[in-house]
Design goal:
Largest interface: A-B, 46 and 43 residues
Strand content of chain A: under 5%
Shape of chain B: globular
Number of helices of chain A: 12
Radius of gyration of chain A: 20 Å
Largest sheet of chain A: 2 strands, antiparallel
Number of strands of chain A: 2
Order of helices and strands of chain A: HHHHEEHHHHHHHH
Structural class of chain B: mainly alpha
Distance between the termini of chain A: 46 Å
Structural class of chain A: mainly alpha
Distance between the termini of chain B: 56 Å
Number of strands of chain B: 0
Number of domains of chain A: 1
Largest sheet of chain B: none
Strand content of chain B: under 5%
Oligomer: heterodimer
Shape of chain A: globular
Amino acid sequence: MGVLEGAVTYANLLTLLAIGLTLTYITTSVPNFAQGSFAIFSSYIAYIVYKLFNFSPYFAAPFAILFGGFIGVVTYLVVLKPLIKREASILILMIATLAWDLILLGMIGIFSESLSKYFGAYISRFIFPYYLDFKIAGIQGIFFSSTLAIALSLGFLMFLLYKTKFGIAMRASMENPSLAEIMGINVETTRLFSWFLSGAFAGLAGALLPFKQEIVQATGQIIIVSIFAASIVGGLSSIYGAILGGYLVGLSESLITFWLSKIFGTSVLVYSKAVSLAILVVTLLIIPGGLVTIKWRRYLWRSRR
Amino acid sequence: MAFEALISSILLWFGIYSILSLSLNVEYGYGGIPNFGKALAVLVGAFTAGAVVNRILIAMYSIEGTTITQRSGFMKSTVDSIIASNPAYGIGLLVFTLLLAGLIGAVIGALYILPSAKLESDYLAITLLAIAEIMFMISYYNTDLIGGYYGAPVPDVLAFIPGELREWAFVALILFFTLLTYLFLERTLNSPYGRLLRAMREDAVALQFSGKDIMWVRIKTLAFSSAIASMTGVLYSFYAGNVVGIVNLFARVNWTFFPFLMVLLGGMSNNRGVLAGVFSFVVIWRLLDGYKHEIADLLNLPFDVNWLQYIIFGALMIAILYYKPEGLVKEKPIETEPIKELKSKHSEKA
């Protein structure tokens, strides 16, 4: 896979995950540390579906999406809602998602090892080999399918938010939950749905990720730092911010480390996550609100004069 | 697993995690600073032992070798044989490393909290987590610094004690340091400083109005608690004989999540509660770990019991947050002299 091609594929998937994180942050104001594990659990589900039917891995994507949505809903209903009712602070909710992430990691481990025994094959660590993917003009299919996935997801999200009544209700409850409640909107339903969507996006990303990189049980713990970086760089409370941040972090993570490796040798390739973490820390210190809070127009206007 | 080994491992981990959790309690329980990168201070301890003191010793004995891991290994055998005949050397090395780690830990801790000037709550927590993750990533992948994933052997400071007694000697040593830390923190936190920290946790703005520089309080607190926490890193590295137990990618769970779990389980801003939390956690943890093969055989589990551990501790954390947010032992008001007087007068009347 070419460097740029791989970078775009990764950025597509990261954006998908970042949108999910942002969506639940806007509605529930919890930075969800389990987002990475949502995706990886779904990757395992996709792999099992593929193993069972021995059909194209793309066929498994719908199952992964549904499963991701299911974990999202469970996360909200079982872990967060009872705590929110008790008026727990954001920090407590964050610790709860960290704990939930640990639970998911345990479940992923149990699931993968039990099925390894069942299938009589080692499935704790896997990848979708390139020959399972289609090819157009010499470019791996995952490049197109991940682009298509992000385009469809964004199109769906925008249609939902701006063209349907439910979407208007969702946006209202994002802007001002108590006012929305007065207007007769069931804020609980919109929250629950945002968790479903967030999980479903993560599930989709999880179904496609094995084409790009090897999946192990702890991949979720590793990828979560990039997801956070992507969401925060753009601005944690804006969906456009997540798109911007997803591409910025996704592309720079692959490309900056690639360029650095040309200068300093291949040993720097392992630090790709350090790049995104550094971007994260710098953004938080300089523009904590993220890129979307910068008033670009003002700067443009000034420079023109 | 022998019963004796189980008891010694419970006591050992109780000591190590007590020091770490007590220091986290100063930051999070008393000061309300969400230090989600607690593991960094432990890394500083491992770094002092494995990267700084090792290099000093290697230079002192002019040991040759290709990598830091290899040179540390040669150095360890030389230094161990010296310590075996000269106990004072071992104790001196331990004390020197602890002091050095405390110093480096204090400096790093003070620098590390600087982002809190601009950030708070969840943003601060994510930033601190990210800083700690970067440091771990660099020390894990860069094998020249502290051995990375190959690890770096450190000298056995108790090499003069015969092999079969070494385990218990270390348990005694670590429990001794735990007792020191506990007594020290108990005094410190019952002083005006402890009340200052609680005030900062409850209402930082009000504290600013009464003329306190919050940033300075935070810097002092992190320097102080990180110094203590880095001693944990030193003690554990010396016990394990290698820094590889700290410099790995599980640090977020072992050295950040578990301490948070213990502090919340025991009860925040309450040293005795934290000790109770650490003890309950460590007993469950060591029992599960010690009997994991027996459990797997008994229940005919087709997977490693470690995964079950993760689920149990994650669920325990959520259950505490939900059912017992105040922990095993509740926070008590600080008994200052005037309050004690008032109380004794009250009881005289009654």
